[in-house]
C-alpha cells in the first residue's frame, strides 16, 4: 500500500485494490498515460489544499471559485475535480449540460458546508421573519455550502460570497436590507463585518443546538448580521497563542491567516486573506522575508518549497506546529483519479456530481449575482 499517512483510507472501498496497491510512481505514470489518451476531452482541476501527488496530476490549480470559473470556460467533456463536494457541484452548475463534473472520492465533503442543513436554515429564517415582523433580511451564503442552500439564497434575494469578495458582497447586502443572514461560516462573517465597522452588539450568533438559536427576540431585532454557527475544523485550530509563540521564536516573522480563523486569531495576525490573497502576498513580499501562515498545510508546504530557493530566499512555515490537513479534501488520492480515468477511457463515467436542474438554475443565479457584484 502507498504511504498516505492513513488519511481517508476508509474511502478505498470505492476503488479496486489493484489501484492503491501500486507504488506511487507507477500510479502517477499510468494516470498521465490515460490522461494523454483522453486528450482535450479531459480537464483535471485541483484545489490548493490537495495533497502533492494528486496536485501533480492537475491541469489547473486554484481556489474553489477560480476552479469553477475555469471549468465554466472549458470545452472539456469530463471535468475531474480534485476538491470537495460543494466545489464539484459549483462546477456542474456553471458548466454546460453536456459537460460532466466528477469528484474522484465521493466521500470528500466539507465539514463546514455540512453544518448548514436546509431544514434548520429555513426554520431560522421563519423565526427571524416572525420576530422582526418581516423586516428585510438578505441571505448570503459562503461558497462552501450545498447547491440547495445557494438556491435558497437566490429565492430570497441574496447571493453567494467567497473569502476574497466577502466585504464587497456584505456591503451590497447591507445596502439592500435591514439585516444580513450569513452562513455557514461564523468566522468569515464576523471577521468581515468587524472590519467593516459593525459593532459586536449588532452581531448575533445563531446556535443550531438551542431553541430559537439561543437568541432573545431583542437580540435578533437589534442585529445587523445574523451569523450561523458553522466553522472550519482546519482553520479553527489556529490560535493567537500560536502567533505569540512564533513571534517569540522567529524574530521579524510576519503572520498571515485565512479569514475562516477565529476573530482572536485574525486580530493577532499581521494580515488575513483568502488562499489566493495569501499566495499573492507572500509571492510579492521582499526576498528574505519570514512568514508563518495559518491555512491548510499542503498549500503552505508547496509555497515554502517554491519560495525557498533563489531569488526568493523566503522562509515559510505553517502557523500550527501540529499537522493541519483538510482530511476530507485529502481523500482524493491518485488511486481514485486512476480508477476514474481508466473508466473514462473505456467510456464509463463514475462519481458524476449532478445537481437537479431547478436547484442548479437558482444556484447559478446566486453564483452569477456574486460574480457581477465582484467586478
Ligand atoms: S479546509 Fe475547511 S472549509 Fe475548506 S474544504 Fe476543508 S473543511 Fe471545508
Quick one: CATH superfamily of the largest domain? Answer: NadA-like
Structure ligands: iron/sulfur cluster
List low-pLDDT spans: 1-12
- Total domain units: 3
Output the CATH class name of the largest domain.
Alpha Beta
Shape, per Cα inertia axes: globular
- Lateral strand order in the biggest sheet: 6-5-7-9-8
CA radius of gyration: 21 Å
Q: Which quaternary structure do these chains form? A: single chain
In short:
The protein has 375 residues and is α/β, with parallel strands linked by helices. Helices cover 43% and strands 14% of the residues.
List the helices and strands and how they pair.
Blueprint: H1 17-20, H2 24-38, E1 42-47, H3 52-55, E2 60-62, H4 64-73, E3 78-82, H5 85-94, E4 100-102, H6 118-131, E5 137-142, H7 147-155, E6 159-161, H8 166-176, E7 179-183, H9 186-195, E8 203-206, H10 217-221, E9 225-228, H11 240-249, E10 254-257, H12 263-268, E11 271-272, H13 275-284, E12 290-294, H14 297-308, E13 315-318, H15 334-345, H16 357-374
Parallel strand pairs: 1-2, 1-3, 3-4, 5-6, 5-7, 7-9, 8-9, 10-11, 10-12, 12-13
The structure holds iron/sulfur cluster.
Amino acid at each position: 500500500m502507498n504511504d498516505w499517512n492513513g488519511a481517508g483510507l476508509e474511502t478505498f472501498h470505492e476503488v479496486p485494490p489493484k489501484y492503491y496497491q501500486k507504488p506511487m510512481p507507477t500510479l502517477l505514470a499510468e494516470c498521465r498515460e490515460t490522461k494523454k489518451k483522453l486528450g482535450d476531452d479531459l480537464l483535471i482541476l485541483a484545489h490548493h489544499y490537495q495533497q502533492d501527488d494528486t496536485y501533480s496530476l492537475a491541469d489547473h490549480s486554484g481556489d474553489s471559485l477560480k476552479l469553477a470559473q475555469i471549468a465554466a470556460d472549458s470545452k472539456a467533456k469530463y471535468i475531474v475535480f480534485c476538491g470537495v463536494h460543494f466545489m464539484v457541484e459549483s462546477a456542474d452548475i456553471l458548466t454546460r449540460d453536456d459537460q460532466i463534473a466528477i469528484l474522484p472520492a465521493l466521500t470528500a465533503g466539507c465539514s463546514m458546508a455540512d453544518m448548514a442543513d436546509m431544514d434548520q436554515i429555513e426554520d431560522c429564517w421563519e423565526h427571524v421573519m416572525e420576530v422582526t415582523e418581516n423586516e428585510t433580511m438578505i441571505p448570503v451564503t459562503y461558497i462552501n455550502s450545498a447547491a440547495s442552500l445557494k438556491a435558497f439564497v437566490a429565492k430570497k434575494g441574496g447571493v453567494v460570497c467567497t473569502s476574497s469578495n466577502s466585504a464587497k458582497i456584505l456591503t451590497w447586502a447591507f445596502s439592500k436590507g435591514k439585516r444580513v443572514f450569513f452562513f455557514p461560516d461564523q468566522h468569515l462573517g464576523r471577521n468581515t463585518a468587524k472590519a467593516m465597522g459593525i459593532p459586536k452588539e449588532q452581531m448575533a450568533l445563531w446556535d443550531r443546538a438551542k431553541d430559537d438559536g439561543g437568541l432573545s427576540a431583542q437580540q435578533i431585532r437589534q442585529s445587523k448580521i445574523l451569523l450561523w454557527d458553522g466553522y472550519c475544523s482546519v482553520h479553527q485550530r489556529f490560535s493567537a497563542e500560536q502567533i505569540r509563540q512564533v513571534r517569540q521564536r522567529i524574530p521579524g516573522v510576519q503572520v498571515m491567516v485565512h479569514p475562516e480563523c477565529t476573530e482572536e486569531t485574525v486580530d493577532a495576525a499581521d494580515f488575513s486573506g483568502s488562499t489566493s490573497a495569501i499566495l499573492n502576498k507572500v509571492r510579492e513580499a521582499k526576498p528574505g522575508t519570514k512568514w508563518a501562515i495559518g491555512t491548510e498545510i499542503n498549500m503552505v508546504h508547496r509555497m515554502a518549497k517554491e519560495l525557498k530557493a533563489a531569488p526568493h530566499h523566503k522562509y515559510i512555515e505553517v502557523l500550527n506546529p501540529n499537522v493541519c490537513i483538510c482530511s476530507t479534501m485529502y481523500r482524493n488520492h491518485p488511486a481514485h483519479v486512476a480508477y476514474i480515468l481508466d473508466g473514462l477511457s473505456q467510456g464509463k463515467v463514475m462519481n458524476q456530481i449532478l445537481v437537479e436542474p431547478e436547484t442548479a438554475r437558482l444556484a447559478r443565479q446566486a453564483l452569477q449575482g456574486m460574480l457581477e457584484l465582484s467586478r
